[in-house]
Design goal:
Keywords: Membrane, Transmembrane, Transmembrane helix. With about 60 residues, this protein is mostly helical. It has a domain at about 30-59. Helix content is about 95%, strand content about 0%. The chain has 1 helix and no strands. The termini are far apart.
Length: about 60
């Protein structure tokens, strides 16, 4: 009886682990997108500040 319940638990855990892996992949993709957009936004802000400083320096 104990071995049968253990096998049943393993069968139940396998699909759960698959769904967890899928969710992890989705979160990793969203994190990568957020990091790339965050880096791009940071670069744009730095570029704008540098251009503003150059304009002030020219005057």
């Amino acid at each position: 009886m104990v071995s049968q319940s253990g096998k049943r638990k393993n069968k139940r855990n396998k699909p759960a682990s698959q769904t967890d892996a899928v969710s992890i992949k989705k979160t990793s993709k969203s994190e990568i997108f957020s990091q790339t957009f965050g880096f791009a936004g940071f670069f744009v802000v730095v570029h704008a500040i540098s251009q503003f400083i150059l304009l002030i320096a020219r005057r």
